[in-house]
Amino acid sequence: MISARQLSKHFRGPGGKDVVAVSDLTMDVEEGSLTAFLGPNGAGKSTSLRLLTTLLEPTGGSARVCGFDIVGEPAEVRARLGYVGQKNGAGMYQRVRDELTSQGMLYGLGRAETRRRVEEVVEALDLGEVVDRKTMQLSGGQKRRVDIALGLIPAPRLLFLDEPSTGLDPQSRAHLWEHILELRHRYGMTLFLTTHYLDEADQFAERVMVVDQGRIIADDTAPSLKANLAGDRITLSVAGPWDGADAIVRRAAAVTGVSEPTIQATTTADGARVVVHLDSGDRVLPHLIRGLHEAGRLVLTADLARPTLDDVFLNLTGRSLREEGRHESVPEQPQTAGVPR
Ligand SMILES: Nc1ncnc2c1ncn2[C@@H]1O[C@H](COP(=O)(O)OP(=O)(O)OP(=O)(O)O)[C@@H](O)[C@H]1O
Ligand SMILES: [Mg+2]
């Protein structure tokens, strides 16, 4: 569906400085797949989407989308894809229903099919109450749902969504995902989206690409990305001193076939806090607690943490995506063109 080779986009930043927004983007995206693009603010996610949807001309490289060249055949590309941008695209003065209808007609769906699709998306995105109002009278989250509805109307073969769920309340987010997955199932739609919600990428995308400073720095399934990390972390607090209990941890790991746990114990007011890094923590933990109990040691608390996509990003870049990604409730951030990150 998408085949990009060394695609790049440079902008002229303040003082004529060259800003590399996208650098050497090379990827192939299979028909019917769901890919999530993750990365901090300014990583180049939106610019990549705007290149692939022909809204921007690349500085270098090439790409074919739905079988057509993005530079040579932009009209062919546009006719086959849907795009929901990061900023609101819905018009201000039209009624929601009229806007959705014009969108269907623009895509050449015909009157009856357009009417059917409008009813479908209105229901899927809970727009029933606002469908006869003008976009300018809607709340931010309602406008966002209209934007997404506009992108979904043509049920395109390939749909790009730039932060579709940012600004939506949890219920609308859940509805949106239900509808996206349903459309995908029904039409075999290929989805390519950006999100700052790591849980969405983790749960729904079969492929996760992590972008930083215009480059793809990881590209795999979420489970593989997480599995490549150091593994799980068990944190125990025990009563009394830890002295010599490392052997109990090693034994519990060995019984489960897990090798080389790393163990760090620190003394606390009422005993010790022990952090164990290892694989398959879920299988080792019961043996560990039993072993400690049999050795007469009292376990006060036990916690198992598995790596998240945020740990993946932290491991790759030394920075947390979660902190940088929390921008939904913050006013629009100034563009950081030319500022070294
Ligand atoms: N029209 C433009 N002119 C100059 N610089 C731009 C322009 N559009 C984007 N940039 C710069 O390109 C870089 C990538 O921006 P982009 O919007 O693609 O980031 P993003 O990953 O979508 O970030 P966010 O998570 O904030 O949406 C940033 O440094 C940005 O400032
Ligand atoms: Mg963006």
UniProtKB/TrEMBL annotation:
The residue ranges of the ABC transporter domain are 2-238
Q: Name one GO molecular function term.
A: ATP hydrolysis activity
* Record-linked PROSITE patterns: ABC_TRANSPORTER_1 (PS00211), ABC_TRANSPORTER_2 (PS50893)
Q: Which InterPro entries match?
A: AAA+_ATPase, ABC_transporter-like_ATP-bd, ABC_transporter-like_CS, P-loop_NTPase
Q: What Gene3D superfamilies does the entry give?
A: P-loop containing nucleotide triphosphate hydrolases
Keywords, sorted A to Z: ATP-binding, Nucleotide-binding
For the keyword Nucleotide-binding, the answer is yes
- State if Isomerase is listed as a keyword: no
PANTHER family reported for this sequence: ABC TRANSPORTER, LINEARMYCIN RESISTANCE ATP-BINDING PROTEIN LNRL
Q: Can you say what this protein is called? A: ATP-binding cassette domain-containing protein
Q: What is the lineage of its organism?
A: Bacteria, Bacillati, Actinomycetota, Actinomycetes, Micrococcales
